[in-house]
Amino acid sequence: MESSVNQYCTIINFGIRVISNRNSSKTIALPKTALKNLSDGRFSKLSIQLIDENGNKFLKLTPVFDLRRKIL
Length: 72
Fold this sequence. Notes:
two-stranded antiparallel sheet, Pemi-like Protein 1, Chain: D, 18% helix
């Protein structure tokens, strides 16, 4: 795991991941530390978006707060 910092953000590199074929889907396993750092363990769902910035494509993972789970 490598990290770098520039004036706009901190980037933590979790290495190269294998894309597995599961039925008709593709699956990527993320390390537990990546998800823990993303949400501090408080969220069980993620919003996933494909971002294209001037030809540079990346996935954006955002924790989602589930109100129904907290109310019940």
